[in-house]
Design goal:
2 domains; 5-stranded mixed β-sheet; 6 helices; alpha+beta; 26% helix; 277 residues; Nuclear Transport Factor 2, Chain: A; 35% strand; elongated
């Protein structure tokens, strides 16, 4: 009877065991593993807001908000989202992660050991590997910006000249709205709120947030809005001009049905928009 041997290791194998390259399954899987992962990974955890990143980069897009009460559960979701999903989409793998919580407690939260198993439904095989995840405490770019009070845009919330109203409720509405935006846009948040003589100055982390707040205010309140910009310096990377954006919002304290006097004549308000009453 004709005998068959693996072209790589010399092991005798049956006809049905041959895989591409005339090698046995062991040599084939060694040459073509289901996936490859590093033995160690670093995850950076912000001491202030508990956001995290797998990169120490100052690029804000690399950081994500802490959405889990249990840090180990958060780490599991982070590994799947940032590392394993990219592999899974290419090779149709299902991953399971098991954490050694004792290693997390023993190291005082400085590292955790995890075992990652990938299953292939196509090739009917699996692979397991052990990884060490080091947890590095640091300060994220957003918190650094807050501590340095660096801001790119300002909402100037003001009373109109017609009648003063309590702006505190509107400020709270803006804060709640920005908190909702922050969940999906980590780089968008309020740096500081200052009280002025006739309202509030709300300092924002980026310019794109000012457009979102403008749209939000227009759906909730009657107001007069005015955009402007101010030159604040030069971009150290490009040498171009750096501008800070200002949005003046004057709240109109009027409602449909109100009576107003204009030139000794009374008028009933039937419609209010941002451009006319």
């Amino acid at each position: 009877m004709l005998k068959r041997f693996c072209a790589k290791c010399g092991k005798e194998i049956s006809k049905g065991e041959f895989l591409p390259g005339y090698i046995c399954s062991g040599c084939y899987y060694e040459k073509n593993p289901l996936f490859n992962l590093k033995e160690e990974y670093n995850v950076y955890l912000c001491n202030e807001c508990k956001s995290f990143s797998f990169s120490q980069s100052l690029d804000k897009s690399h950081w994500k908000a802490f959405t889990e009460v249990d840090f180990v559960k958060l780490l599991e979701n982070a590994l799947k989202t940032d590392l394993l999903n990219k592999i899974s989409s290419k090779k149709s793998l299902d991953f399971k992660i098991e954490f050694d919580r004792e290693s997390f407690e023993y190291s005082n939260g400085n590292y955790i050991i995890c075992n990652i198993t990938g299953n292939s439904s196509i090739e009917d095989r699996q692979k397991s590997t052990e990884c060490l995840v080091n947890i590095k405490r640091t300060t994220c770019p957003n918190c650094s910006k807050i501590h340095g009070k660096r801001f790119e845009a300002v909402i100037q919330l003001r009373n109109s000249n017609l009648k003063k109203i309590d702006l505190n409720k509107i400020v709270e509405d803006i804060k709640k709205y920005v908190d909702e935006v922050h969940l999906n846009h980590y780089e968008s948040f309020i740096i500081e709120i200052e009280k002025s003589n006739n309202g509030y100055n709300i300092k924002l982390s980026n310019k794109s947030l000012i457009k979102k707040i403008k749209s939000f205010i227009e759906t909730q309140y009657y107001s007069i809005n005015k955009l402007s910009k101010k030159l604040v310096g030069k971009n150290p990377s490009t040498g171009g001009d750096l501008y800070r954006i200002y949005l003046l919002i004057r709240i109109i304290p009027l409602e449909k049905g109100d009576l107003i006097d204009i030139s000794k004549k009374q008028y009933v308000i039937k419609r209010i928009s941002n451009k006319e009453v």
